[in-house]
Specification:
alpha/beta; Rossmann fold; Argininosuccinate synthetase, chain A, domain 2; Single alpha-helices involved in coiled-coils or other helix-helix interfaces; five-stranded parallel sheet; five-stranded antiparallel sheet
C-alpha cells in the first residue's frame, strides 16, 4: 500500500513543529512541510532543515512575496479595505495565498490531505479551510488542523516537543503570539489580553517609540498609477521593495502602531496589536489621492463597498465570486487614481501635506475667494431656490413643528 501524504503549512514555530510528529503518529502518514516566504525575514534554510530533522519526508520553500503584494495586497489597497476601519488585513491576506500553494503541492505530490496550525478559536482556521475547499474543487482533499483537534496548550506542546527532541526556544520575557509578513505584523497573546493595560514596548519590533523618534519630520512623496503605488520620491520601485522601504522609513518615525479591540469572525472580541507602517502610509496616501480625483458620490459608494470587501477578506472568502465581483468594481474606480501625495512623518503621525494629479477635480478658479475666482456667484440664488423647493413646498402645506 502506498504511503499516505499530508502537506503541512510549516512556519518553523512551536505549533507546526510539533504537528509533524503528531500527524505521523495519529494519521500514519508522511508529512511534507511547505513554507511560503511572505517577507517575514526568517532563516529559510534553517526552517527547512528543522522540518526535516523533526520528521518531515520533504520540505519545500516557496517565494511568495511578489505574488502576495501584486495579487493580494495591492487589490485590497485599491479597494481601500481596512477591517473595522483600522486593520490593513495583513495576516488575512497571507492565508489564501498559503492555501493556494498547499493545494498545488498536494496535487503535485499526490497527497490525500493538507494541514495547518490554526486553533479552534481564531480566524485563520476559517480562512484556510474555506480557501482549501474552494481551490480543491471536486478533488477529495482532507483538512487536518492538529491544534484544533489536539486541544493542547503551550506547556503541553513544549513537553511533547522535549520528549521527541524537537528544539524548543526557552521563554524569555513576556509572552506574545506573532504573525508577520511584508504588509504587517500581528501581535496577540497572554501579555496583551487585558485591554486596560498599555501594550508593553517589547511587543513592538518594527516601530520606534515616539520618544526615540527623530525631532525633525520626514517627508516622502508616493506616486500612484491607476491606484497602485509605483515610486517613492521619484524613484520607481517594485511592490516588494517599495513596501520594504516604507516599513523602514515609517518605523523609524514611529508610524504604524495599531491597538484594536477586534470582532473576530468566530464571535469573540479580541485585543489585537499591529505594526504596519507601509500599510498605514499607503492607505493614507491612496485615500487622499482618491479624494482629489473621484466625485463625492463615487467616494461614498466606494466607502460602503470597501467595508464589505474588508469583511469578505477578513472572514476568509477571498476565493468567493462576490470578492471577484467587487474587485471588478474597484478596478473601475481606479482609472484616474494617478498622481502623487506628499506625506509628513513625525512622532508617530502620518499626515498628508501635498497632493497633485493630472486628473484632479480640484479647480483653483472655482475654489478661490481671491483673484482668479471664476465661480458664477449669480447662479447660486437659482440653485438654492431649486434645491430648497421640496422643503419650502412641504412647509407651506405642513407647517414645521418641533
Amino acid at each position: 500500500m502506498d504511503t499516505r501524504k499530508v502537506v503541512l503549512a510549516y512556519s518553523g514555530g512551536l505549533d507546526t513543529s510539533v504537528a509533524i510528529p503528531w500527524i505521523k503518529e495519529n494519521y500514519e502518514a508522511e508529512v511534507i512541510a511547505l513554507t511560503i516566504d511572505l517577507g517575514e525575514g526568517k532563516n529559510l534554510p534553517e526552517i527547512r532543515n528543522k522540518a526535516l530533522k523533526t520528521g518531515a519526508s520533504a520540505a519545500f520553500i516557496v517565494d511568495g512575496r511578489d505574488s502576495f503584494i501584486s495579487d493580494f495586497v495591492f487589490p485590497t489597497l485599491q479597494a481601500g479595505a481596512m477591517y473595522e476601519g483600522v486593520y490593513p488585513l495583513a495576516t488575512a491576506l497571507g492565508r489564501p495565498l498559503i492555501a493556494k500553494h498547499l493545494v498545488d503541492v498536494a496535487v503535485r505530490e499526490g497527497a490525500y490531505a493538507v494541514a495547518h496550525g490554526s486553533t479552534g478559536k481564531g480566524n485563520d482556521q476559517v480562512r484556510f479551510d474555506v480557501s482549501i475547499m474552494v481551490l480543491a474543487g471536486s478533488r477529495k482533499l482532507e483538512i487536518i488542523a492538529p491544534a484544533r483537534e489536539w486541544d493542547m496548550n503551550r506547556e503541553t506542546e513544549r513537553e511533547y516537543a522535549r520528549k521527541r527532541d524537537i528544539p524548543v526556544p526557552e521563554k524569555k520575557g513576556r509572552v506574545f503570539s506573532v504573525d508577520e509578513n511584508l504588509w504587517g505584523r500581528s501581535i496577540e497573546g497572554e501579555d496583551l489580553e487585558n485591554p486596560w493595560d498599555e501594550p508593553p514596548e517589547d511587543a513592538f519590533a518594527w516601530t520606534k517609540p515616539v520618544a526615540q523618534t527623530p525631532d525633525s519630520p520626514l517627508f516622502i512623496e508616493v506616486s500612484f498609477e491607476r491606484g497602485l503605488p509605483v515610486a517613492l520620491d521619484g524613484e520607481e520601485l517594485g511592490g516588494v521593495a517599495l513596501i520594504q522601504q516604507l516599513n523602514r522609513s515609517g518605523g523609524e518615525q514611529g508610524v504604524g502602531r495599531i491597538d484594536h479591540l477586534e470582532n473576530r469572525h468566530v464571535g469573540i472580541k479580541s485585543r489585537e496589536v499591529y505594526e504596519a507602517p507601509a500599510a498605514v502610509m499607503l492607505h493614507t496616501a491612496h485615500r487622499a489621492l482618491e479624494a482629489m480625483v473621484l466625485t463625492r458620490e463615487q467616494l461614498r459608494i466606494k466607502e460602503r463597498l470597501s467595508q464589505e470587501y474588508a469583511d469578505i477578506v477578513y472572514n476568509g472568502l477571498w476565493y468567493s465570486a462576490l470578492r471577484q465581483d467587487l474587485n471588478a468594481y474597484f478596478q473601475s474606480t481606479q482609472r484616474f487614481v494617478s498622481g502623487a501625495i506628499r506625506l509628513k512623518l513625525h512622532k508617530g503621525n502620518c499626515t498628508v501635506v501635498g497632493r497633485r494629479s493630472p486628473y484632479s477635480l480640484y479647480s483653483f478658479g472655482l475654489a478661490t475667494y481671491g483673484k482668479g475666482d471664476s465661480f458664477d456667484h449669480r447662479a447660486a440664488k437659482g440653485f438654492i431656490n431649486i434645491f430648497g423647493l421640496p422643503v419650502k413646498n412641504q412647509a407651506e402645506k405642513q407647517p414645521y413643528q418641533e
